[in-house]
């Protein structure tokens, strides 16, 4: 019966949000009375977005969304705006906390795949022109290897060795004249893009052509890992939220253990990424020290 009701409700996306439950039905019924996000963490996968989001929502002034990764602007954009609103707190809650606790709450989501969907920047800008964007970036060599193990091997779909996978992908990129901005946005194809998803700049330019520089904060995964409290406080400052010392930053989320990468493989990727990393640093006028 529950599955039957769920299938019926899915035909009415303005009424249905998330898994079927009393809580989610209530969210759908109150969707037009809910606030939209103040910030979005847009990527990339295996760059610490889950850890950062879990640190941020420990702040008493930051409310979490129904789920961390909503995937509205990429895979669910055919659904109405109220479906998206249903994932966030009510405006009444925001007003009550402000009035009785003098607490100014904000909210946000974190969908890494937004970064690499070339239609998403314009979609977000049209709906949320004032939103603040947090872009997590990691050394693309380490990101690719982590991506391979955590999403390819762990899900049981990847049969190739890492060397075979990157060789195939680099050859494919050569055939496409290194066109990173392709139009295939499906999950299965993105799942196996270990190399190309480390070429950040072509996608970043799409965002920076729409949003002002002061709306975008770049968070380096290496700094988030090594100087976690300082990195999180920098994000709080960016979000105009007071620093909060009660954040538990000891736990790291979605961390996998695997054997070190072969040195020969690392050299291949280092050579591949070197010009892209240099171009990124020059464009952002920021050092990443990945080379």
TrEMBL record:
UniProt xrefs under Pfam families: Sulfotransfer_1 (PF00685)
Keyword hit for Glycoprotein: yes
Keywords: Glycoprotein, Transferase
SUPFAM superfamilies: P-loop containing nucleoside triphosphate hydrolases (SSF52540)
Keyword Ion transport: no
Residues annotated as domain Sulfotransferase: 37-267
GO terms assigned for molecular function: sulfotransferase activity
The protein, known as: Sulfotransferase domain protein
Protein source organism: Candidatus Nitrosopelagicus brevis
């Amino acid at each position: 019966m529950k599955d039957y009701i769920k299938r019926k409700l899915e035909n009415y996306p303005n009424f249905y949000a998330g898994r079927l439950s009393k809580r989610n039905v209530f969210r759908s019924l109150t969707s037009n009375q809910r606030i939209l996000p103040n910030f979005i963490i847009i990527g990339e996968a295996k760059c610490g977005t889950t850890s950062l989001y879990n640190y941020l929502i420990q702040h008493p002034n930051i409310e979490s969304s129904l789920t961390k990764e909503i995937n509205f602007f990429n895979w669910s954009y055919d659904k109405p705006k109220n479906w998206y609103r249903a994932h966030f707190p009510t405006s009444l809650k925001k007003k009550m906390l402000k009035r009785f606790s003098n607490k100014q709450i904000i909210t946000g989501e974190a969908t890494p795949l937004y970064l690499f969907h070339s239609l998403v920047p314009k979609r977000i800008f049209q709906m949320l022109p004032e939103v603040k964007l947090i872009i997590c970036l990691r050394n693309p060599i380490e990101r690719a290897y982590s991506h391979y193990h955590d999403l390819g091997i762990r899900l049981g779909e990847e049969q190739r060795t890492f060397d075979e996978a990157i060789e195939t992908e680099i050859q494919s990129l050569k055939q496409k004249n290194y066109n990173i901005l392709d139009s295939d946005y499906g999950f299965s194809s993105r799942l196996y893009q270990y190399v190309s998803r480390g070429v950040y700049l072509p996608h970043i330019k799409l965002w920076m052509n729409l949003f002002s520089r002061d709306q975008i904060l770049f968070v380096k995964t290496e700094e988030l890992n090594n100087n976690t409290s300082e990195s999180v406080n920098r994000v709080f400052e960016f979000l105009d939220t007071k620093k909060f010392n009660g954040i538990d930053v000891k736990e790291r989320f979605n961390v996998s253990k695997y054997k070190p990468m072969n040195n020969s493989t690392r050299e291949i990727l280092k050579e591949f990424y070197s010009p892209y990393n240099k171009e990124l640093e020059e464009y952002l006028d920021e050092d990443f020290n990945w080379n």
